[in-house]
Amino acid sequence: MTAPRTIVLAATETGRRLGADLAAHVGGEHRTGRPRDLLAEAWGEADALVLVMAAGAAVRLIARHLADKRTDPAVVCVDDAGRFAVSLCGGHEGGANALADRIAAHLAATPVITTASEAAGLPSLGSLGERFGIRAEGDLAAVGGHVLTGSPVRIERDLPWPLGPVPAPVTDDPTAPLLRVSDRITAVQVPTVFYRPPSLVIGIGSSRGVTAAEVGDLIDQALAAAGLSPLAVHTAATVDLKADETGINEAVTARGWPVVHLPAEALAAIEVPNPSEVVLAAVGTPSVAEAAALHLGGELVVAKRRSPMATVAIARRPARGRLALVSLGPGADDLTTPRAAAELAAAEVVIGYGPYVDQAARWTTRGAVFETFGLGQEVERAVRAVELAREGRAVALVGSGDVGVYAMASPTIEHAGPDIDVVVVPGVTAALAASAILGAPFGHDHCSISLSDLMTPWNLIEERVEAAARADLAIAFYNPRSAGRDWQLARAREILLRHRDPETPVGIVRDAERPGQAVTVTTLGALDVATVQMTTLVLVGTSRTRMASGRMVTPRGYKSEVF
Predict the structure, then answer these.
(1) From CA 247, how far away is CA 245, in angstroms rounded?
(2) Which of 127, 208, 220, 290 is the most exposed place for a label (fewest CB within 10 A)?
(3) Per residue in 337-379, pLDDT tens?
(4) Are 448 and 401 in contact (CB under 8 A)?
(5) What distance lies between CA 132 and its chain's CA centroid?
(6) Residue 414: which H helix or E strand, with range?
(7) How far, in Å, CA of 321 to CA of 411, rounded?
(8) pTM (2 decimals)?
């Protein structure tokens, strides 16, 4: 898919200067000249228009061109002073709301979004599932209006595909408006929004010189005969010998689908119901259309159909749930990354240790479900998250700091198979947060060691402390001390003192980036282990670490460095 094309137009010289800046910011094209003429030309070319002018002028300018919100470009109006970014049309479907927000953030302006769901603080029904490749069609206005009143909807999933949190109560009442996840075109008796998952793969074969019209007609006929929605097509595929076949490429591109070109030997390895010796002799594989349709696995739902110069087949690839392992950071809201916030906003189910789920709740969307687990239930958390993802849900399993560091990513990935999508969202670790609070104790080589022997035998932990001490690495000690483990930090200190000066700086950070944060800087010799608790990190410097204006710093070692 090509990137959306944005064209920026302005009415005044002041507006043109601002327009040039906005075009550069959004990666668009800035056109200058008579606005009426420019708009008439740009309307059929652009996916989005940014009009730098008064709102009234913008409305009069676009009025004669408006036809259908599903096909019109998104239009955002920005005043010459850059004070407001107004989403005029194409708010949900065209992306004008998101573009207005982006422009407003760039200009430190006020975004003006007037669509009903935003006014109510709800996501639009048309945006559900977008993150997972789902596209919506149907009676969006009627069902959306129903949701805005707080009334319940019914949900049906023909396919277990992630949709995201539904911002409405859910009912079994057959008369309630319906949200249906399906790639099939079906008759309904109530107002319905269809969510089309990217489930279908179109396989295409052809003779040389086939026209785009013939290929396109055959594809459309195959989809219609099977009652399948074109919005559910994920990919079109053919043999790599057809990579330069204009008719195939143009037909697929016109429908907005990507096309994949596969080696003949790869297609030959895929079992199909209708192999052909003629095709094998011509291109090196007994099947092109059916094998290409099945290259992502799944089932064949339309066996190959022929026209004089083309063949088409359709497969339904396996549905895949999504499991996001989301890092919340060390505690402060502004240290949770935008990527983590986006995953949480799209999650249908949020799972984790109770306090972490509470921390994550602020980024979730109305309709999300929360499942909490206690300490010691790490395996249960992992199993439950994978189970829900296999049901086709969008699941977020949350952890503090970085979920991949002494946290839930490792046990969860061990349980997850290849049948679900797993993404790991990195985060700011507790060690990095503590290091930043102290200064730069990790300015050179460093490591992290957990002193908890609940999962790792103490003899192995002791060997690691000894190795880090010998290597003169800066060390972050995780899980340094608790009520049930009150001697390990003292033993680690003994090992370090065999290799480091007692005056080596040590930073103690409790509850980093949380309301109870407390910081102490001491030395290895003076370290009082009794002051350390479970939510504390202990950072031990190297032989070169020193204090500079009250801050710990470990020099990088540049020859020109002066300290």
Answers:
(1) 6
(2) 208
(3) 999 999 999 999 999 999 999 999 999 988 899 999 998 899 9
(4) no
(5) 8
(6) helix 409-415
(7) 18
(8) 0.75
